[in-house]
Amino acid sequence: MKERISGLRNESSKTKRTGLFKRITAAFPLPLIIIYKKVSSTSLPNLSVFWHINEGIEEIMADHVHQEMTRNWILVSFRLFLLIVIKDVFLSLVSFPNKSKNLMDRTHPWLLRNISALRCGRNVQF
């Protein structure tokens, strides 16, 4: 039987490079977040996460949305949403550079009271 030649077998260098970059950005943020002591120095892992999210959504859109105009409209809307989220993340990093990394230090006082009450065994209604 004759072996079938497929265009998918021989990947282009761009496809290989993009695939490698996707794998790197998927594995890249976690070690950097663990290594960095300052909250403000996590901007590179955050950018990596946002880039990876964007690439993943583009891949999903390419596979499942077949209308070019609809796909482009969704991607433009998503990128606008992603820019707003990126802005908020980086502003929060700049706003709280000297704050403690402990999440409980920035939690609302009402929630802290209820959490401490639950730890003491008292009934609390949320």
TrEMBL record:
Entry-linked InterPro entries: SDH4, SQR/QFR_C/D
Primary site of residence: mitochondrion
Membrane topology (UniProt): Single-pass membrane protein
Keywords for the protein's UniProt record, in alphabetical order: Membrane, Mitochondrion, Transmembrane, Transmembrane helix
Location(s) in or outside the cell: Mitochondrion inner membrane
Annotated transmembrane regions: 20-36, 73-96
UniProt entry tagged with the keyword Metal-binding: no
Assembly information from the UniProt record: Component of complex II composed of eight subunits in plants: four classical SDH subunits SDH1, SDH2, SDH3 and SDH4 (a flavoprotein (FP), an iron-sulfur protein (IP), and a cytochrome b composed of a large and a small subunit.), as well as four subunits unknown in mitochondria from bacteria and heterotrophic eukaryotes.
Protein name from the UniProt record: Succinate dehydrogenase subunit 4
Source species taxonomy: Eukaryota, Viridiplantae, Streptophyta, Embryophyta, Tracheophyta
